[in-house]
Amino acid sequence: KTAYDIKGKRIDNIELGQKRANFAKEYFMKNGIPESKIKTTSKGPDQPIADNSTAEGQAKNRRVVVTIN
Question: I want to staple 18 with a disulfide (CB 3.0 to 4.6 A). Which of 2, 7, 25, 42 is the partner?
C-alpha cells in the first residue's frame, strides 16, 4: 500500500489537495464566512482514509474535510 494516490507525484498531490481546500474556502467566503475564520491546509498523501490500491479508495482519499466550531 502507498500513503497517497498512486497516480501522481507526491508534490503534485499536495498542490492538488490545497486547490481543493482553497475552492472550499472560496465557497464559504462567498456565503458569508469571514476569511479570518477559515484555515486551509493540504494533507496531500499523508493522511489517507482508504486503500489507495483501488479506484474507490483513491476517490475517497480525494476529499475536503470541513470542521465548524
Answer: 42
Whole-number Å distance between alpha carbons of 43 and 54: 20
Cβ atoms of 52 and 6 within 8 Å: the answer is yes
Residue 67 CA to residue 55 CA, distance in Å, equals 26
Residues 6+ apart with CB under 8 A from 14: 42, 44, 45
pLDDT tens-place string over residues 1-32: 344 445 678 888 889 889 989 999 999 999 99
- HSE toward the beta carbon, residue 56, CA cutoff 13 A: 0
